[in-house]
């Protein structure tokens, strides 16, 4: 039963929602609820169950620093293992009492008169002083409007909503997209299907993958000497962070990695014509760099055909490629990504003055530290605008933001009517700085489009700097002003409190 009131409402029980829940409890805060629309926790790792789903960031880094897992079986873990890790956090940190699964949030509005968020969820409402949207940047699947799709008589599914009840064995399958998801499921389904058409609009840069099993001896070491795992985590972090030099500071250096990728392709693709079609026409790093040892070998199999360009049309039992050739199809799989910068959720969060996030953003999501927006008091978004990474672990960004949010919440003190809001000036300066830093990066100069770019052409997805700089900035909360709640005896007006002093942290 969802309570009618909680001090803090967290929306979403994926990586970020669980992380903030753990840290809230560790900070001694008990009056909070986590609302999750899915029947279980895990977020992206709950929903993405496609064959071959595996994290492309090493697990020692792609896990919470305060909840290490010495039991990872592979350096890059599979989906089931990551999901089990996240599910394990519930018991490990006593989150069950806070967690409400199967509860969809329809929207939330700031009620100025009552100084609270009214969250519409599960058919009722919850009032909260603080609202934390841990809704993830990649949770709304995109199915492109391919002409004629509604006529298709075969089976369709999106990679993030895999239909395990549909047997692909012996089927003629069209897979659309060549991003991080498709590159994992295409090799996994290729041996089973009769024919596989891979629709490639833009070729990805693909690197050799260094995944390997973690030995029993290593796991023993991590169990008995946690410091050893922290050391590995640090080394992985430093290795990933080194990519910032090429992505952000000196894109010219990325040519060396392009050579590695080309050699990787040559090793597996003998056909020069196919190699040419698979060679990207933009700078490496501009789109997400993809690791796979199976992608090219799968594309070279005789039952696979790469169709370049977007589909022209879908018919009842076939698809028509960009060149006008028709291919019979029993199923279409959409590896076509997510609404990363135009999530519908932003329409459902309404701040002071009745404006939604979407209305304020006008197609260009911006936030202070990816978390807070003027006009949205006591509201924090986790993994909001410009917190994405082209190179590292999102979990690092989550933890940085979570600590920031905890510090900000502490400034509210015990006053349940206190209101905290980011100063418009700090927010504007922060985003101007992001835009300036973005200039000259590989995402700006690399000659590609990607889901990081919003409807107005702004890169709203990525953090364009070292991640430790993000963390360092996130330690400060001086960009917020705090209004104390009305005096209990006066019943009206705001009482100036000590936290009103500017610059107080
Ligand atoms: O989605 P994407 P994804 N006709 O948006 C193509 C994370 N992730 O699900 O490049 C034809 O990257 C589109 O083509 P183009 C990770 O952050 C992480 O693969 O736009 N094609 C592209 O090829 C990742 O970045 C892991 O020209 C169409 C593809 O669909 C993010 O999720 C694993 C099309 C979409 O690629 C999203 O990855 C998997 C059309 N009409 C995913 N419309 C980890 O391991 C779109 N495309 C952590």
Give the SSE layout.
Elements: E1 5-11, H1 15-26, E2 32-36, H2 44-47, H3 79-92, E3 99-101, E4 105-111, E5 116-121, E6 124-133, E7 155-158, E8 172-176, H4 182-189, E9 195-200, E10 206-207, H5 216-224, H6 226-241, H7 243-249, H8 255-268, H9 272-278, E11 290-291, H10 295-299, E12 304-308, E13 313-314, E14 318-320, E15 326-328, E16 331-334, H11 345-348, E17 349-350, H12 357-361, E18 379-381, H13 394-411, E19 419-422, H14 424-438, H15 442-445, H16 467-474, E20 480-483
Parallel strand pairs: 1-2, 1-6, 2-3, 4-17, 6-18, 7-16, 8-9, 8-16, 9-12, 10-11
Antiparallel strand pairs: 4-5, 5-6, 13-14, 14-15, 19-20
Distance, first to last CA: 36 Å
Shape: globular
List low-confidence stretches.
491-505
Which fold name corresponds to the CATH topology of the largest domain?
FAD/NAD(P)-binding domain
Number of strands: 20
What is the class of the largest domain in the CATH system? Alpha Beta
Q: What does this entry look like structurally?
A:
This protein has 505 residues and is of the alpha/beta class. It folds into two domains: 5-140 and 339-432 and 464-500, FAD/NAD(P)-binding domain, CATH 3.50.50.60; 149-210 and 236-334, FAD/NAD(P)-binding domain. The chain is built from 16 helices and 20 strands. The strands form five sheets. Strands 1, 2, 3, 4, 5, 6, 17 and 18 form an eight-stranded mixed sheet that branches. Strands 7-16-8-9-12 form a five-stranded parallel sheet, with no helix packed on it. A three-stranded antiparallel sheet has the order 13-14-15, with no helix packed on it. Helix 1 crosses helix 13 and helix 5 packs across helix 6. The radius of gyration is 24 Å and the shape is globular. The protein starts with a strand and ends in a 22-residue tail after the last strand. The model is unreliable at 491-505 (pLDDT under 50). 3-acetylpyridine adenine dinucleotide is lined by residues 55-57, 138, 144, 159, 176-182, 199, 201-202, 288, 310, 335-337, 451. This is Flavin-containing monooxygenase. One of its GO terms (molecular function) is monooxygenase activity.
